[in-house]
Amino acid sequence: MRKLSYLVATSIDGFIGDPTGEAEFFAQYGKEDYWEYYWAELPETLPTAARRHFGIDDRPNRRFDTTIMGRATYEVGLPLGFTSPYGHLRQYVVSTTLDKAPDPAVEVISEDPVGRVRELKREDGLDIWLCGGARLAGELVEEMDELVIKTYPCFLGSGMPLAEAGFAIRDFTLDSVKSFGGGVVLTTYSRKR
């Protein structure tokens, strides 16, 4: 059975973006060792255009063949013409307001995202990457099998939380911690079931 992994960037104080959800500022903290690791181990989590830019678009998907994201996460690239941001993955956007995506490679899930994720988990293939955002992470928190948290060395004070899930104790087991130049820490947790 495939896993749902929430791989996300966060500040030290647990925010995945500023109050509007913008998070481009995290990129300034990655140093060469971080990017080399990222390109080698998680190349499919870079948008298709970024993969081309860095010359790694020929690298195979290692962990994920599917991504699921909320509407706001998807819409970040639309003004730049990125209608299929992860064209090297199966792409799903969860939205009750978006009738259909402007690109046929992107499928809109308008109802029951939990049920759809459960169906995807039963399929053969690589794992499923929950790309963002906070509201969708809250809806899918009980389906998360793994958390991969990229913590950047900044303190925001407020912003978009890691998830809008409501209070409950959900136990995870620490699998690994990797630190990189520039102060970036990659922490992986598995769901304790």
The order of strands across the largest sheet is: 5-4-3-6-1-7-10-9
Q: Supply Rg.
A: 16 Å
CATH architecture of the domain at 4-29 and 64-171: 3-Layer(aba) Sandwich
Largest sheet: 8 strands, mixed
Number of strands: 10
CATH level-4 homologous superfamily of the domain at 4-29 and 64-171: Dihydrofolate Reductase, subunit A
| Mean residue pLDDT | 94
List the helices and strands and how they pair.
Elements: E1 4-11, E2 15-17, H1 32-41, H2 48-53, E3 64-70, H3 71-75, E4 90-94, E5 106-109, H4 113-122, E6 127-132, H5 134-140, E7 146-152, E8 160-161, E9 172-179, E10 185-191
Parallel strand pairs: 1-6, 1-7, 3-4, 3-6, 4-5
Antiparallel strand pairs: 2-8, 7-10, 9-10
InterPro entries: DHFR-like_dom_sf, RibDG_C, Riboflavin_Biosynth_HTPR
Protein name: Dihydrofolate reductase family protein
Domain Bacterial bifunctional deaminase-reductase C-terminal: 4-186
Task: Give an account of the 3D structure.
This is Dihydrofolate reductase family protein. Residues 4-186 form the Bacterial bifunctional deaminase-reductase C-terminal domain. InterPro entries: DHFR-like_dom_sf (IPR024072), RibDG_C (IPR002734), Riboflavin_Biosynth_HTPR (IPR050765). It holds the Pfam family RibD_C. It is built from five helices and ten strands, in the order ββααβαββαβαββββ. By secondary structure, it is α/β, with parallel strands linked by helices. It has a domain at 4-29 and 64-171: 3-Layer(aba) Sandwich (Dihydrofolate Reductase, subunit A), CATH 3.40.430.10. The model has no long low-confidence stretch (mean pLDDT 94).
